[in-house]
Write a structure and sequence with these properties.
alpha/beta; six-stranded mixed β-sheet; 35 strands; 14 helices; single chain; seven-stranded mixed β-sheet
Length: 773
């Protein structure tokens, strides 16, 4: 048994026991004692005074004890275990259920999935709790979902919430869920505070190697005076050798926005875990909007605990919003047998070409080649709908409904143009700045974004010129074309992009140290990539993410003045790839858990008629976003992994054309690490349980024994109340005795002393008189 005081101000309260001592000292009578002969024979008075002094000291001690008991009772002491816990009624408990909601909880290798077992376990444990106990529920996903954030005493409400938990999906961060549970218990007042984590024992979800995370959990747990206890329950009970699994990694698309008939490449990997030796054969299928494409099935041999690359190509026959899926044949863990990606298929991509050097002769215009490449006059259904505007007529209205803007040798931008163009990119638009001889480098160097950072990804230094053209000219380095949208133009793909010769280009200076080819810069802001470079080591293409959009800086020109690129067969597909790549910012349909969803919509859309629908089917309210030129709707946070859909509240039919209906699919992706079903080993469990941080239990009976008996906490203030009342009665009785009995005896003793003194005095007087006679 241990007795703990949970109030650190207890010592200040106990200081009050000095008050009766001070009162006793201050109330003592102050007079001079004169001893005279006859008093030494009066023992009765001395004994009476001694008794009274003892009673006064006893009264003082009783009062000190009363004050001490009040201070201790206000500090709410409690007993942990021991025999006294059976004599005093137990306090209520605050309990937080943490249910692992990751897709590994959907394992179907047994009659019941671990997730169903976890919900049933929590339902059964509710029967062991008292009516006054309170319960909160957290659905542990990649970001914890507080299903019942404020602990509730309505057990039926808790049971309903448990029954309505979404099916397992995505990954789980149990350490973050425990942190959230401790934060909830930090606001409660019961002396028994419990966190019960119910999962499948998977090692990865616990982040056992993250020392900083667990140090923060320890600090949070030790912060309140009552330390919450954390119990771990494994409802899966996996045995070694029963968990072989195949999984599909996240999809990588060549483009998220495309047009009918334009090829979309889908790449991914199939991975195996839990296979000891040898390998296995897997059939991999391509699905579009949930329907299997018959001629898109391949077989791959997956090595033990290895992976195999898979690639498909698909051309959408019509516009609309679609979901591409790579699917495996069913196994015991269906949560990772499919991987999805959303694709927006537009009838045509609207592009604005801003001509910085207009000419009377059209073929000499700065944008003539680009316009013909993007929107050929011979095509009735072009993939890109390009519009040309002279740079001195470029206004904010020019940007309406445009997905990508090209600035072709534009000399400068005035402050108004720079402001609306920066806002356009920040909201998801794509911007290509192609340079030339008309460009004012100083003017471009002054362009700033809303945070005061340079808007362009690089600084314009000076114009460089090839002086060795007779030796073959300056070309693009093939190895620098590493990004997915540039990979088709490498030599191995048969492209001619690297055959173009560059006679002039602007020397670009990147402020930060350039990263490896095709990789993000080490600095987070701005995010700069050197996309391609010339064999002179000068950057040719540099890009920067800005808001939801992207800015691409092309060091040369789009026409044939400075290079031979327009004469190459790759010129047309290159411009198309640039457009499709940059236009994806307006339709970011594939995000990670926790990231918002944003969808451009027609002006005047009635939000009351539409809703985002989560993977579990629940409607989520959209919020207005964007501006007058680019209206949009937004879902602030995505908590569940899976497929989301924006549609009319009462419509469940097929998606209509992208240009005519705002209905759209989104995919919220997740980490596939949950596919490794390896459980916590004994060493990891001991490390996590160090310092009584966690307690692993085998079942309900084990948890009941440890929670309700050995570790039960019972407040002892009811016992202190009885002791206080007993002392109070004793104090009243003793005070009454002193007032009525003690003082009367003192008065009687005083009278006897006075009479004895008078008799002695008379005796002495008579003796003296007789002697005188």
């Amino acid at each position: 048994m241990s007795l703990d005081f949970i109030n650190p101000l207890l010592l200040l309260g106990l200081a009050g026991i000095a008050l009766p001592v001070l009162a006793h000292l201050l109330s003592k009578k102050k007079y001079d004692v004169v001893q005279w002969g006859a008093m030494q024979f009066l023992e009765l008075g001395r004994n009476t005074r001694r008794r009274i002094r003892l009673e006064q000291i006893l009264l003082m001690l009783l009062r000190m004890g009363m004050i001490a008991l009040v201070a201790i009772a206000l500090s709410r002491p409690w007993l942990a275990g021991g025999w006294l816990s059976n004599l005093v009624s137990s306090e209520t408990r605050d309990v937080v259920f943490v249910i692992d909601g990751s897709y590994s909880m959907g394992w179907q290798g047994k009659a019941e999935t671990p997730h169903a077992a976890a919900v049933g376990w929590a339902q059964n444990f509710l029967d062991e709790l008292r009516p006054g106990d309170s319960i909160a529920v957290i659905d542990a996903r990649e970001q914890p979902r507080q299903v019942i954030a404020s602990p509730s005493r309505d057990f039926q409400h808790v049971r309903d919430a448990l029954d309505k938990l979404p099916e397992p999906s995505g990954s789980a961060d149990l350490a973050a869920a425990v942190t959230k549970a401790l934060q909830i218990l930090g606001r409660t007042s019961s002396l028994s505070r419990e966190v019960i984590v119910i999962g499948d024992g998977q090692a990865r979800s616990w982040r056992a190697g993250d020392a900083a995370m667990w140090s923060g959990i320890d600090a949070l747990r030790n912060e309140p005076a009552v330390k919450p206890r954390i119990w771990i329950v494994d409802v899966a009970q996996h045995s070694p050798g029963e968990k072989p699994n195949l999984s599909v990694e996240a999809l990588r698309l060549s483009r998220q926005l495309t047009v009918p008939g334009f090829p979309t490449r889908i790449r991914t990997k199939v991975r195996s875990t839990g296979i000891e030796t040898g390998g296995t054969t897997a059939r991999v299928h391509l699905h579009v909007d949930g329907q299997r494409i018959d001629d898109r099935t391949v077989k791959h041999t997956i090595p033990a605990n290895g992976e195999a690359s898979v690639e498909f190509e698909y051309r959408f026959p019509s516009g609309g919003s679609h979901v591409l899926s790579v699917v495996l044949d069913d196994d015991d863990l269906p949560g990772d047998d499919a991987s999805h990606a959303a694709v927006a298929v537009a009838e045509a991509i609207p592009v604005l070409l801003v001509d910085g050097d207009p000419q009377l002769e059209p073929t000499r215009a700065e944008t003539w080649f680009a316009h013909k490449a993007l929107t050929p006059a011979t095509s009735e259904t072009p993939w890109v709908r390009a519009t040309v505007v002279p740079w001195d007529r470029f206004t904010s209205e020019s940007l309406k409904d445009m997905a990508v803007v090209f600035l072709a040798n534009v000399p400068r931008l005035d402050p108004t143009q720079a402001e609306f163009l920066e806002a356009y990119v920040r909201q998801g638009g794509g911007l290509v700045v192609a340079l030339g001889d008309k460009v004012d480098a100083e003017s471009y160097g002054k362009l700033r974004d809303s945070d005061g950072e340079p808007l362009l990804p690089a600084t314009l230094e000076e114009i460089e010129e090839d002086t060795l053209a007779s030796l073959g000219g300056v070309r693009v380095v093939d190895d620098s074309l590493q990004l997915p949208w540039l990979a088709p133009f490498r030599i191995e793909a048969g492209g001619g992009f690297t055959e173009a010769r560059f006679g002039k280009w602007w020397k670009l200076s990147i402020a930060a140290k350039p990263p490896a080819e095709g990789e993000r810069d080490a600095n987070d802001a701005p995010e700069v990539m050197r996309v391609a470079r010339l064999d002179t080591s000068d950057p040719l293409i540099v890009s920067r993410r800005h808001g939801r959009g992207e800015i691409v800086l092309f060091a040369s020109s789009l026409d044939a003045d400075w290079n031979t690129l327009p004469a190459q067969l790759d010129y047309v597909p290159f411009l198309h790839e640039v457009v499709f790549h940059l236009a994806s910012g307006l339709s970011a349909r594939n995000v990670r858990v926790g990231e918002p969803l944003l969808l451009p919509v027609p002006a005047g859309l009635s939000l009351g008629e539409f809703a985002f629908h989560a993977p579990d089917g629940s409607p989520l309210e959209p919020r207005a976003a964007g501006d007058e030129l680019r209206p949009a709707v937004r879902l602030a946070e995505t908590q569940l992994a899976g497929i989301y859909e924006f549609r009319r509240r009462d419509d469940s039919g097929p998606a209509s054309a992208y240009a005519d209906d705002p209905r759209a699919f989104f995919v919220v992706d997740f980490d596939r690490g949950e596919s490794d079903l390896a459980t916590l080993d004994e060493a990891a469990q001991q490390d996590l349980a160090a310092g009584e941080r966690l307690t692993f239990v085998s079942g309900v009976d084990d948890l009941k024994t440890k929670m309700f008996t050995d570790g039960s906490r019972t407040e002892v203030w009811p016992l202190l109340l009885f002791v206080f009342l007993a002392i109070l009665v004793g104090e009243v009785v003793l005070t009454r005795r002193l007032v009525r009995g003690g003082h009367a005896a003192l008065d009687d003793a005083g009278n006897d002393e006075k009479a004895a003194s008078l008799d002695g005095f008379l005796t002495e007087v008579n003796a003296a008189a007789g002697a005188g006679k």
